[in-house]
């Protein structure tokens, strides 16, 4: 396997890094609160980066999300690409791809996901009774299977910004498994939810809400694994940004006439943080590369998710400890980035969940 970026992937990564670096500043993050940065999102869409993900693949998306993570930019980039563009491109019917992809490419449509399936939402209607193979729900059908969804999802990240949400539903017996349903946010009831993570979240209430089926067997597992991989790439960037700020601070701040970076204890913690960051990065790269190559990648995505949870928590904590003299407030660049690294870990407990899933 070769993780060397292609020319297109490198160009997209560099452009993303420039936009995120210029526009996602600590001051703008503080002003956004728990909401999103709409001007930054417009800049990303104007540059064509959401649409570019179709060409650069999941590995390319991981590279772009690393750049977002470095500055903890508050935009629904990962969610819209994974739950919208990549999901529809891989599992939508020909009619769905033609109808839905243009808006997702240019950013006029924003997708998010009610993932993983929690069991609180049920589907009824034609689409709920389908037990189709992936091919029967992608290439051969000209339209989409439809149905009605009922249930409540307590919180959905980026729901306040989204125009559509991909809802994961546990199918009833005897079908078993899971199915994916696209629901327009305007057709559902929503209300804002404040989380510790700045994800513009909301509560989703479905009461006979119309939806359309996306994909058949295997679609849920593929999208869930892709999401785990993408968010692992985001976490790798968060950790890298946190460590970079810690290194810059400890090289500038002095104690007893010497930089903090010269002290062995600081160097050891920084080295450990770097190793954790690299573990997240390489496992995310491997999972993304395997998906793009058409190889099984579910267990590799679980490995990346574990490192993105446990490794990110350890890495960002060590970076924060290195800069303890800076002051533990979420408004300082380093500690603010470290808080970003812990949000996914505390919210999803992804490490423990990954181990349980792997054991089954």
If you had to describe this structure to a student in words, what would you say it looks like?
With 360 residues, the chain is α+β, with helices and mostly antiparallel strands. 55% of the residues lie in helices and 15% in strands. The chain has eleven helices and nine strands. It has helices at 7-23, 26-32, 38-46, 49-70, 77-91, 94-106, 219-252, 264-292, 298-322, 333-348, 350-359; strands at 111-114, 121-124, 146-156, 164-170, 178-184, 189-192, 202-213, 254-255, 258-259. The strands form two sheets. Strands 1, 2, 3, 4, 5, 6 and 7 form a seven-stranded mixed sheet that branches. A hairpin with a 7-residue loop joins strand 4 and strand 5 (178-184). Helix 1 (7-23) packs antiparallel against helix 3 (38-46), helix 4 (49-70) runs antiparallel to helix 5 (77-91) and helix 9 (298-322) runs antiparallel to helix 11 (350-359). 51% of the residues are buried.
């Amino acid at each position: 396997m070769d993780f060397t970026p292609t020319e297109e992937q490198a160009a997209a990564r560099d452009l993303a890094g420039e936009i995120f670096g210029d526009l996602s500043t600590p001051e703008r993050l503080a002003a956004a609160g728990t909401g999103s940065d709409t001007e930054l999102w417009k800049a990303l869409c104007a540059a064509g980066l959401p649409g570019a993900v179709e060409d650069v693949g999941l590995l390319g998306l991981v590279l772009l999300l690393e750049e977002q993570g470095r500055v903890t930019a508050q935009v629904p980039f990962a969610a819209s690409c994974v739950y919208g563009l990549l999901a529809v491109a891989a599992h939508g019917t020909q009619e769905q791809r033609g109808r839905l992809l243009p808006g997702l490419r240019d950013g006029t449509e924003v997708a998010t996901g009610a993932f993983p399936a929690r069991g609180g939402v049920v589907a009824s209607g034609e689409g709920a009774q389908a037990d189709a193979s992936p091919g029967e729900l992608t290439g051969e059908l000209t339209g989409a299977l439809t149905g009605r969804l009922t249930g409540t999802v307590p919180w959905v990240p980026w729901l306040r910004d989204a125009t559509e949400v991909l809802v994961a539903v546990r199918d009833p017996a005897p079908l078993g498994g899971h199915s994916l349903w696209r629901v327009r946010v305007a057709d559902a009831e929503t209300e804002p939810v404040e989380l510790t993570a700045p994800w513009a979240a909301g509560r989703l209430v479905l009461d006979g809400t119309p939806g359309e089926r996306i994909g058949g067997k295997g679609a849920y597992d593929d999208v869930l694994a892709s999401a785990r991989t993408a968010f692992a790439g985001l976490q790798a960037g968060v950790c890298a940004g946190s460590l970079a700020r810690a290194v810059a601070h400890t090289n500038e701040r002095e104690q007893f006439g010497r930089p903090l970076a010269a002290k062995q204890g600081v160097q050891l913690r920084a080295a450990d943080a770097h190793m954790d960051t690299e573990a997240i990065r390489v496992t995310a790269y491997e999972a993304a590369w395997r998906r793009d190559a058409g190889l099984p990648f579910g267990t590799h995505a679980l490995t990346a998710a574990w490192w993105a949870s446990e490794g990110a928590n350890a890495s960002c904590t060590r970076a924060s400890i290195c800069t303890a003299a800076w002051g533990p407030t979420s408004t300082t660049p380093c500690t603010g980035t470290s808080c970003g690294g812990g949000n996914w870990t505390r919210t999803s407990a992804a490490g423990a969940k990954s181990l349980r899933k792997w054991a089954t």
